[in-house]
Amino acid sequence: MSTRAPTDLPRLVDVGLIPALNLLTALVISGLVIWVLGEDPFEAMSLMVSGAFGYGEAISYTLYYTTNFIFTGLAVSFAYRCGLFNIGGEGQAVLGGIGILIAALLFKDLPGLLLIPLCIIFGAALGALWAAIPAWLLAKRGSHIVITTIMFNFIAAAFLSYLLVGPLRRAGAQSTESEDIVSAAQLMPLHDVFAFLGMAEGPANMAFVIALLLCLFYGVFMNRTKWGYELRVVGQNPAAARFGGISANRGIMIAMILSGAMAGLMGLNEVLGVQHRLVTNFTSGFGFVGIAVAFMGRHNPIGIILAALLFGALYQGGAEMAFEMPAITRDLVVMIQGLVILFAGALEHMYRPALNRIFANPKKIEAAR
Amino acid sequence: MSDLFFTLLLLCDSALRLAAPLVLAALAGLYAERSGVVDIGLEGKMLGAAFAAAATAAVTGSPWLALLAGIMTSIGLALVHGFVAISQRGEQIVSGMAINIAVAGLAPTLANAWFHLNGQTPILEDGARFTSINLPFANALSDVPVLGPIYAEVISGHNLLTYLAVALVPLGAWGLFKTRFGLRLRAVGENPGAVDAAGISVHRLRYIAMTIAGILCGIAGTALSIGLSAGFVRDMTAGKGYLALAAVIFGRWYPVPTFLACLLFAFADALQGQLQGTPLPFVGEVPVQFIMMLPYIVTVVVLAGFVGKIDAPKASGIPFTRDR
Amino acid sequence: TSEPVLIYDLGGKFDKSFNEAAYSGAERYRIETGNTYKDFEPTNEAQMEQALKRFARKGAPLVLAIGIAYQTPLEKVAPEFPDVHFTAVDANINLPNVQSVSFREDEGSYLVGMIAAMKSESGSIGFIGGMDIPLIRKFGAGYTQGARSVNPDIKIMENFVGATPTAWNDPIRGGELARSQFARGVDVIYSAAGPTGLGVIQAAKEAQQYAIGVDSNQNHIAPGTVLTSMVKRVDVVVYESMLAASDGTWAPGNAVRGLAEDGVDYAVDEHNAALITDEMTARVEEAKRMIIAGEITLGE
Amino acid sequence: MYAIEALSISKRFGAVQANRDVTLQVAKGTIHGLVGENGAGKSTLMNMLYGFHAPDHGTIKVDGKEVSFKGPVEAIRKGLGMVHQHFMLVDTFTVIENIVLGFESDRRMAPTLASARDKLLKIEETYGLAVDLDALVADLPVGTLQRVEILKALYRGAETLILDEPTGVLTPQETAALFEVIKTLRGEGKTVLLITHKLGEIMGITDNVSVMRAGTITKTFKTSLTNENELAEEMVGRTIIREVNKELTEAHRRILRVDNLYAEDDTGKTRLNGVSFDVHGGEILGIAGVSGNGQSELLEIITGMRAPSGGSVIYTDLKVAKKNRAADAEKLRGNGMGHVAEDRHRFGMVGPMTAAENTILGYQGRESFYQGIFLDPGKVRAHCQSLMDDFDVRPPTPDLPLKNFSGGNQQKLVMAREMAQEPDLLIVGQPTRGVDIGAIAFIHSRLVEMRNKGRAILMVSSELEEIMTLSDRIIVLCDGRITGTGRPEDLTETDIGLMMAGRYEKEAS
Ligand SMILES: Nc1ncnc2c1ncn2[C@@H]1O[C@H](COP(=O)(O)OP(=O)(O)OP(=O)(O)O)[C@@H](O)[C@H]1O
Ligand SMILES: Nc1ncnc2c1ncn2[C@@H]1O[C@H](COP(=O)(O)OP(=O)(O)OP(=O)(O)O)[C@@H](O)[C@H]1O
Ligand SMILES: [Mg+2]
Ligand SMILES: [Mg+2]
Q1: Ligand nearest to the CA of D393
Q2: Distance CA B145, CA B165 (A)
Q3: Is any atom of ligand 2 closer than 6 Å to the C-beta of D47?
Q4: CATH of the domain at B85
Q5: Which positions ≥6 away from B221 have C-beta within 8 Å?
Q6: Does one domain contain both D354 and D231?
């Protein structure tokens, strides 16, 4: 939406100091609230950091959350680069999870080497389908994608609820969850894969690696392929797309299908990686946080990974803080996340004018002339 | 026949009640977007206001002070969003999200700190709320055929804020289309450059629009916590902010159609409640989850079938600067 | 540490419902014994397992997990920490270091269903559930059976609030569903929907009809309106389990608590005494006796 | 007595010194011209006079008194009016709403509009500025929008009017009408500051003219004492050869046949009404006409951006567009058809993308940009660099977003992109709109060079002079019909003007 004037700041300031200052501001304000609640803000913050990175299992949890955020962040970015605002990550993730589970149950006798790819295909396909319908409605009928994707979130949630009390419910169980998947379908935990690195046990699993690969795919697709180029032209200037012989509708469909597939694959982490079954509300709002991740990551693959890592750390470190400090509830942790999004994501340029004054480089200006 | 009529009246009554906060939030979104600021933070503003109003009502016992508190809180949040979107030229969508998330955390945190009921405020006495008002002659007139029941069942018996919400629709339309302020506001959302060239401050106008959005969301939140219910509950907006945004788009950024869109959503919701457990013709008993999808499916179908392509105010979401 | 740890369900500590009951049980333990405890509210499914592990590893003597959602995580975590005691509420686990307690919500619901049917003048009563899940269906089934035992022709209107967890926190929609039921002739509504039920009670108050509270004793919320509450004594379980752990009498096992074990009941106190006639009490007590004696069987 | 004076003004934007020590004095009651290359700093200076930007140094005087504007509103109060290069109008508003915006006489609209209407009708009459006050701006052609802008300035009480490239988008007729208005204004004692790239206009209407180069005013002439060549030289610091060197070419094969074409625009209005013509190799076919008479639709159909509602287009024996079926724009390019769009901002470029990325727009499938199946940014950048060198695009930095280049340089890059593929047929709309004379000469010479190599060019331009100097044959479109064809040597500008108005049909071959 907005593009910014090129900056004259040294690169280190631009990519290092500014985000650090923004994060710091968010944490200072959070610290004030914690202080008001009668806890020691410094202790809280150090708990947060050590809770996120301080020991092996914590890192594993951080990476587990990061994985979800990479998937949903990518989902938002794929659509956004084509000028589409996909609020439906949540619903697409639900459908993806359903697809993954169905594949895992349906083909449970196959070996993992076949079964897992089938799960990936099913998950991506159902997620994609759930995004493709709004995309198709937009292309054919001009239906506003923000509305349709919101509506599809609600529909997906109701559908999941139906499946888990109905056809997919674990036999005899009181809870709303499906049968467990077979162990062949389970994604290997990272601590097994990277045992030689001495990685501690935890929920992080191969889905993280898949997520990283998808970031690579995203970067290559957007910048190094014809489809990616076309999709970006459609996003920036649909009229120019027409001029260049690019079908805007095709761009919209491709963007949303990829977007939905990414969101759908979040289920890999949850269903195949951690829960080993489908539970209600397994998306837990990760789809929405994906919006913040995508924007904070500037729709850039590395940026998305870093933003996802930040949110992963906030989730895990926040939980740790809540474990340890009675006055800090999960609500406060949510508030801190909100403040971080606000300062690091939306108010990112707050310190820029001041820094411009400090770091402005007159020689460079003259050279440019 | 008369049964059907009665059911319809009930649905309309219910729809009007459910629509009130939606309408207020949607008008807020409409004013914000008409001025060129995208506001997906309606949800957070409403939630913040709902909490402030309920907390104030619990402490002071006065619904009027509660309304004031709700409005002030919501304005505060609106101005934060304004600061990001207008002065700082930050990402508006991210800012809206951030406000939604921060408030969802902050409100229960404060509730816990002040009332020790964690997510909630105490349950309010009637005197501290906006309770429903029976309009004059509602009972006397209810025997008049057709119009009587409509008056008594649908029109009478809502709380003050619901009536306010309905009254604000024509007022909002008038303000937007019949006043100097409205002209400038619409212009700033379409082409801020033109407004700037006419010597009017784009930033000021947008801040005013955000303040209006704040007031409206404030009333909406107050209506939620001390009008329609008797206290604040965690996450009580339950997605209404997003639905309101959808209503604005549905209504093509015009107040009356937006109002109708809100009514449609609310009506479908009420209908959904009514249909649960009732066997439907041809299909028989439908799992309740499918009935719950109804409002959303209706929305998509109406949108795709009848509304078609919708253009937002051109400058919506784009920060303004003089240097291109 | 030697503190017991209480881990809530996703609904959170103050859900005006069974998590809150658990909290009050723990508070009672704290106040009566002077011992402290720790508690934690998870925000998502993954944190459940994480919390169990974490507190177990830190050497908590007893970890209490509230809610059916802990079934699977506990099955996984408990064997890893054989020295830690776990108490699971609502789940059903057979492990040597787990005590699991579930409730016969249908039995309590049966009794309040009877009260509703006896109180109803219109012959039409309502049920509002949060989400359509097996647990809530169990509430509804008991309620229906109880009401039918009083009046076989009684009409029972049933609504669910939603399909996502927001259904538990939506008093507005709860109130609206209640209004709609009242307008269609219902005069008593039983809600099993967490804080959403507050909206039902509010609507009942405005319509001058009756509501029945759930899980905790909600009679005080609107005296004269709340006919009774179906209480589920999670607090007792938590209290007893904590006490037993500190006495060293804690024992594993798989228990189901119904009317016989004081696990569920209907609540009568000063707020609703005037609403329940002696005749009603007599019939309900009789039914209670019969259920305990096995003369009435619940379910299918 | 000066109406407005800029004294030693300097202005810097970040790294760019847009104005340095500029002094400009405009005498009251005169028409003062301002010329200069793209990016010379003309608009920047005007923006400071109008209070949009504050100068870094220097003073501004209005009617001899020093002023310091905090914003346009103060400038407006001092009697300044400005018509921007890009119109400052709200599309969704009516004309009258646009005019009163910011200068409403009442808090309510009804009385505001009523009083404004009276005042505007008087102004319209005084200056001969007929505009339908209730028309929706989005529906109006640019010529009318220009009048709306002037009307707006006059309504706000402008004594001095700044016009930034007002004629860039106007047809000769519209330009003539505008100049009538300007002269009337001068007659009424008002002052006009006119920026244009067309030296003919300067010579025709101004009293004085200042030349701007590299951010400063280098010289001010009395118009009657100078000539176009002197001005041109002053502007660019060298002599510009404005003659084009057309070689005789023999008759070549037919490349494009447009056969009885019908088309409707997006609103369903008929825009083309049975148009037929051929284009051959080695010729430039010029299409003249007031914009909005079907040229846009014609170009869009030929280049595959739009489907005709009747008739067909045949390109090198391939039927590429037929009834209700558009051609495939990408395939056409693959088969050697280049396209420089009329409206470069809307179609020809993607502003936020880098110059390099823009140089493959439409050619994004070309193998030469790929390494295996992957687009190779290095190859794309190298391609852009060579285009930039070839067409003298400044600054020659492929990684800069295209929107940060000046209009003239954008146009050069867009031209370069299409010409680099050595197309057999180049479709080009408004090749030199908003482009300075140096660039115009350059672009013209490249077009002719291409023609001389035996390639075909179909050019739409509202610039009569351009049509006359470049075309081998001319077609005039009016109301979706061909109202005249001929060779430039057989037609006078008056002939074409009449044909464009649909009042005269002449077949001269
Ligand atoms: N808002 C701005 N931000 C940064 N640089 C600017 C801005 N406006 C103008 N410039 C710079 O100032 C210089 C002068 O620009 P200006 O628009 O005044 O040129 P101009 O003479 O009007 O050109 P043209 O004939 O193309 O209209 C340009 O080279 C440009 O780089
Ligand atoms: N964001 C920016 N940063 C730096 N310079 C800019 C920016 N945007 C525009 N400019 C400069 O401002 C000048 C004017 O831009 P503009 O697009 O108006 O060119 P123009 O020649 O006036 O346009 P046209 O002739 O096509 O109407 C250009 O020289 C361009 O380099
Ligand atoms: Mg200019
Ligand atoms: Mg220009």
Answers
A1: 2
A2: 28
A3: no
A4: 1.10.3470
A5: B21, B45, B46, B47, B48, B49, B50, B51, B52, B53, B70, B73, B74, B237
A6: no
Q: Distance from CA of residue A339 to its chain's centroid?
A: 18
Beta bridge partners of D83: D163
Neighbours of B305 (CB within 10 A): 11
Q: Cα(B142)–Cα(B157) distance, rounded to whole angstroms?
A: 13
Q: What pLDDT shows up at residue B104?
A: 93
Considering only CB atoms, C198 lies closest to which of B123, B270, B277, namely: B123
Query: Per-residue pLDDT tens for C69-85?
Result: 898 889 889 999 999 99
Helix (H) or strand (E) holding D219: strand D216-222
User: What letter does residue B228 receive in the DSSP assignment?
Assistant: I
Same-domain pairing of D394 and D496: yes
Give the list of residues 6+ apart from residue A111 with CB closer than 8 angstroms, or none: A184
Tokens representing D95 are 């004309």
Which domain does B73 fall in, by range? 10-305
**Res. C1: pLDDT tops 70:** no
Residue B97 at interface with chain A, using a CB cutoff of 8 Å: yes
Does position B189 have pLDDT exceeding 60, yes or no? Answer: yes
pLDDT digits (tens, 9 = 90+) for D248-263: 777 678 999 999 999 9
What is the spatial distance between Cα D20 and Cα C83, in angstroms, rounded to a whole number?
82
Burial of A359 (0-12, 13-18, 19+ CB in 10 A): middle
Task: Identify which of D475, D470, D466 has the alpha carbon closest to the alpha carbon of residue D435.
Answer: D466
Tokens of A45: 């913050």
Answer whether C touches D (≥3 Cβ pairs < 8 Å). Answer: no
Domain boundary among D188, D205, D236: D236
Q: Kindly report the CA angle at C83 between C252 and C87, in degrees rounded to 5?
A: 35
pTM: 0.90
CB A125 within 8 A of CB A135: no
**Strand D208-213 with D31-36, pairing:** parallel
CATH number at residue D18: 3.40.50.300
User: d(Cα D290, Cα D481) in Å, to the nearest integer?
Assistant: 12
Element housing B79 (H / E): helix B63-82
Cβ D85 under 6 angstroms from ligand 2: yes
**What's the residue count for chain C?**
300
A2 residue type, one letter: S
Which is nearest to C99 in space by CA: C239, C247, C254?
A: C254
Of the pLDDT bands very low, low, confident and very high (cuts 50, 70, 90), residue A3 is very low
**One domain, residues D156 and D281:** no
Tell me whether residues B224 and C172 touch, CB distance under 8 A: yes
**How many domains is chain D built from?**
2
Please state, in angstroms and rounded to a whole number, the distance separating the CA atoms of residues D246 and D453: 11
Residue range C163-168: average pLDDT? 85
Total domains in chain A come to 1
- Check if C50 contacts A (Cβ < 8 Å): yes
Secondary element (H or E) of residue C43: none
Q: Produce one character per residue of C212-236: b if its CB has 16 or more CB atoms within 10 Å, e if not.
A: bbbbbbbbbbbeebbbbbbbbbbbb
Interfacial B residues in 168-207 facing C (CB < 8 Å)? none
pLDDT digits (tens, 9 = 90+) for C111-136: 999 999 999 999 999 999 998 888 88
**Closest Cα in chain A, distance from residue D17 (Å):** 7
| 3-class DSSP state of A164 | helix
Tokens 């820094």 locate to: A355
Same domain? For D190 and D333 the reply is: no
Contact B214, B32 (CB under 8 A): no
Give the model's pLDDT for residue D238.
75
Q: List the structure tokens of D153.
A: 């300035």
Q: Is D406 in the pocket of ligand 2 (CB under 6 A)?
A: yes
* Residue B323 falls inside a structural domain: no
Segment C58-74 shows an average pLDDT of 89
- Which residues of chain B does D73 touch, with a Cβ-Cβ cutoff of 8 Å? 198-200
